[in-house]
Amino acid sequence: MGRRSKSSKGNCCGWVLLALVALAIGCAIYVLMNPKEAEFPDPEPGPPGKPIKKYAHALKLALEFFDVQKAGKLDENKIPWRGNSALKDGSQAKLDLSKGMYDAGDTIKFGFPMAYTASVLSWAILEYGDQMEVAKQLEPAQDSLKWIMDFLVNAHPSPNVLYIQVGDPKSDHKCWERPESITKARPLIQVNTSAPGTEVAAETSAAMAAASLVFKSSDSDYSALLLKHAKELFAFAEKHRASYSKSIPQVAAYYNSTGYGDELLWAATWLYHATGDETYYDFATGDDADEFVQWGSPTWFSWDDKFPGAQVLMSRVSFFKSKGLSNSVTLEKYKSTAEAVMCGLLPKSPTATSSRTDSGLIWVSEWNALQHSVASAFLAVVYSDYMRSSRTARITCDGKQFTPYDLRDFATSQADYVLGDNPMEMSYLVGYGDKYPEYVHHRGASIPANAKPGCKQGFKWLDSSKPNPNVAVGALVGGPFLNDTYVDARNNSMQGEPTTYNSALLVGLLSGLVTTSSVVKSFV
Questions:
Q1: Which is the catalytic residue, given 133, 143, 421, 488?
Q2: Can you give the three-state secondary structure of 194-231, one letter per residue?
Q3: CA 20 to 30 Å from 325, out of 95, 103, 168, 380?
């Protein structure tokens, strides 16, 4: 083969140079014509990719906690130390209230946080069901949701009556016993026109509306039933306005409500998404919004405060389908307030909240500290994916700009802290990793399955120095103190008691992180 001459080599370099110039010109033209697309280093969001192993494993565990918390007849019991319980619940009212879930480490069914658990779990499935499917966790999530919804449907026997609590907390807390030991029918509490409860009725409406979307394609009759209940409950909540904490003062000792405006707007927003009926949109963006919302002032998403959730959910309308809708100014207020929430979470933002530990965990309250960090991270990953799906390049926080990847990094930092990247070097998700809480404040987990102690005798298990004989797999405990420390003691309910609503938030967060997909193909 002949040697290539210098001149041919030079000609080749010239062609390469021309090609590079042409490519650069082409890229520049594309950027000018598609400035929004060019902001993103990755392609248009598409189907979920391969699951990230640690998040997939953590998601599986987190969903198992719902099986730990189930009441009723467990025909397909997945937890060997659990059994049938609370089978007589509701019998004195001729209702079947045996299903549902115990909210924490006791045996009470509190309707308010249970409905919040359902609305958050529904939201997670709606946004990230395809990612759950890839991780083989969609069916368990749907099954757990239906277990709650079956209870809530039965708890709403007529349009203006909703049973909101099964069991007496004072009596319950005088006993330390497994839920399987409950043999008597337990007292019931209801809200009605004489004793209204706007926040609990509206939250249950939100749960019904969101869940109706979850089951819309798989069980249309059940979906229609849930939507019927959602509409009736919203009408009841809106017409008979009063806080359930004032109508029924005894409920304030455990899940005291600080107001019902957030639940009304949250429910209206979900009903708009579920029905497309602009009457609900008009409610969410009308006078009630201006009356109840402190625009531009971030608050913390929790069982008692749905404002941040409603703000993020309404921002979805701004991102994807705001054309032709009225009240555009109020709609933009929702989105700008959601941005203010995001700006407060980002650690490098000029408006970053100081409510965090030295290790970067969002920290608001000694009691159940992880609720706020996980809830904040869930909202951040959802908002990040709204930005990516709509090809929105950045948000501006007091003059400084941040990308959706900054929000995802924040969400990841909170998830990783929970899973063991923290000063204690322990996972706060029971069953994950080599080190996690062994003295979880949980009646069923602390008593051997074959033991049948009486009400008072069971306290020996609470006071025992031995780790729980049963592992409450998937329980997300309350979490660390502000100094990033944790005391693993069964009597330490402040830090060591898990809740179903914490688990729902964690499921949402992990489902959003389990692959690098976004919400482009989700429910709107």
A1: 488
A2: CCCCHHHHHHHHHHHHHHHHHCCCCCHHHHHHHHHHHH
A3: 380
pLDDT (tens digit, 9 = 90+) per residue, 256-288? 999 999 999 999 999 999 999 999 999 999 999
- 267 closest CA partner among 327, 320, 215, 198: 198
User: In which residue are the tokens 């083969």 written?
Assistant: 1
Taking alpha carbons only, the member of 161, 306, 307 closest to residue 237 is: 161
Q: Which of 130, 180, 406, 497 is catalytic?
A: 497
**For residue 28, is pLDDT > 80?**
no
Q: What is the pLDDT of residues 228-264, one digit of tens each?
A: 999 999 999 999 999 999 999 999 999 999 999 999 9
Task: Give the Å distances, CA to CA, from 520 to 279, 388, 444, 480.
Answer: 26, 8, 41, 35
446-452: average pLDDT: 92
3-state secondary structure (DSSP) of residue 429: strand
Residues 6+ apart with CB under 8 A from 290: 330
- Residue of 106, 262, 305, 339 marked active site: 106
Domains and CATH numbers, the chain: 56-513 (1.50.10.10)
For residues 111 and 95, the answer to whether their CB atoms sit within 8 Å is no
Rounded to a whole number of angstroms, the CA Rg of the chain reads 25
Q: Helices (H), strands (E): how many in the chain?
A: 21, 5
**Residue 299: CB partners within 8 Å, gap ≥ 6?**
305, 307, 308, 341
Q: Which amino acid is at 4?
A: R
* Ramachandran bin of 28, using left for φ above 0, alpha for ψ from -120 to 50, beta for the remaining angles: alpha
> Which helix (H) or strand (E) element contains residue 165?
strand 162-166
User: Is residue 488 flagged as an active site residue?
Assistant: yes
Q: What are phi and psi of 140, to 5 degrees?
A: -60, -40
Q: What does the block give as tokens for 375?
A: 């809830």
Show the CA angle centred on residue 265, arms to residues 261 and 271, nearest 5°. 145
Q: Pick the catalytic residue: 229, 372, 441, 442?
A: 441
At 196-229, the pLDDT tens digits run 999 999 999 999 999 999 999 999 999 999 999 9
366: annotated active-site residue: no
Catalytic residue list contains 497: yes
Strands 395-397 and 400-402, by their bridges, are antiparallel
Whole-angstrom distance, CA of residue 11 vs CA of residue 150: 76
pTM exceeds 0.85: yes
Residue 106 designated active-site: yes
CA–CA gap between residue 441 and residue 102 (Å, rounded): 13
User: DSSP alpha helices (H): ranges in 321-428?
Assistant: 328-345, 370-389, 404-418
**Scanning the structure block, which residue is given the tokens 């839920």?**
179
